[in-house]
Write a structure and sequence with these properties.
CATH topology of the largest domain: Rossmann fold
Distance between the termini: 9 Å
Strand order of the largest sheet: 5-4-6-7
Largest sheet: 4 strands, parallel
CATH architecture of the largest domain: 3-Layer(aba) Sandwich
Number of strands: 7
Order of helices and strands: EEHHEHHEHEHHEHEH
Shape: globular
Number of domains: 2
CATH class of the largest domain: Alpha Beta
Structural class: alpha/beta
Strand content: 5-15%
Radius of gyration: 17 Å
Length: 235
């Protein structure tokens, strides 16, 4: 079976504020929307009214728009649904209920499985776009002992964080992401040497994942890994 005959991954894309008819910038290597990231095709639909600011904050009024965009992707042939923002995990139950294909809105869905892969004495570092909004309700881990093994570090206040809040959003600054996320990892490792795995919440972070693996010298997981696993199950 060739890539042309595989069912595509459907990606829910946030608003970027581009003028009507303006071409969308070419997705960066390693990103969720770059065709070269995967060995299967990718299609996307913009979630109307979903901006970084209100998705990260958690606006429940966005749920119908997420559902509508997911259904459009399925109508176009998507074999699974994902999203360009890990905070859209808030809409995971509603979207999963509304379509008949696997839904993996966020890399945070990997947390329970990763915890069980590691010795109980170790910890997982979750690197997020904004730690002030990445609360326990998004982690999917109810056991207090397991929850204590999860450390959350964010890049709020940095250049990339500010850029993503602009309308229109400027081209992604790869160097800014690399600098801010690597610094966050090193701070967490210095304070918690028992960290054994790093999970990237933000769907922009995979573009620097290879650099982060060299910095941390640890396994690094992100949304593209979850998408590969999901698509492998249906292709």
């Amino acid at each position: 079976m060739t890539s042309q005959t595989l069912r595509p991954l459907g990606v829910l894309h946030l608003e970027r504020g581009l003028p009507p008819g303006a071409p969308r910038p070419t997705p960066l290597p390693g990103s969720l929307l770059n065709p070269a990231t995967f060995n299967f095709p990718v299609i996307s639909e913009t979630v109307a009214g979903a901006w970084v600011e209100n998705v990260v904050r958690g606006d429940p009024a966005l749920e119908p728009a997420f559902i509508a965009a997911a259904r459009r992707l399925v109508e176009r042939g998507a074999g699974a649904i994902s999203s360009t923002c890990g905070f859209s995990i808030r809409h995971q139950p509603a979207v999963a209920t509304s379509v008949n294909v696997p839904v993996v809105m966020s890399s945070l869905l990997l947390l329970p499985a990763l915890l069980r892969q590691l010795p109980a004495r170790t910890k997982i570092a979750v690197l997020t776009y904004d730690s002030t909004h990445c609360g326990e309700d998004l982690l999917g881990v109810d056991d207090p002992a397991e929850r204590a093994r999860i450390l959350i570090g964010g890049i709020e206040g940095g250049k990339f964080w500010h850029d993503e809040l602009k309308r229109p959003a400027p081209p992604i600054d790869v160097a800014a992401i690399e600098t801010d996320v690597a610094a966050c990892i090193l701070r967490l490792q210095a304070a918690h040497p028992e960290i054994a795995v790093i999970l990237l919440e933000c769907a922009a972070f995979p573009i620097v994942a290879s650099v982060l693996r060299r910095v941390a010298k640890l396994p690094v997981y992100d949304i593209t890994d979850l998408c590969r696993l999901t698509m492998a199950s249906i292709t």
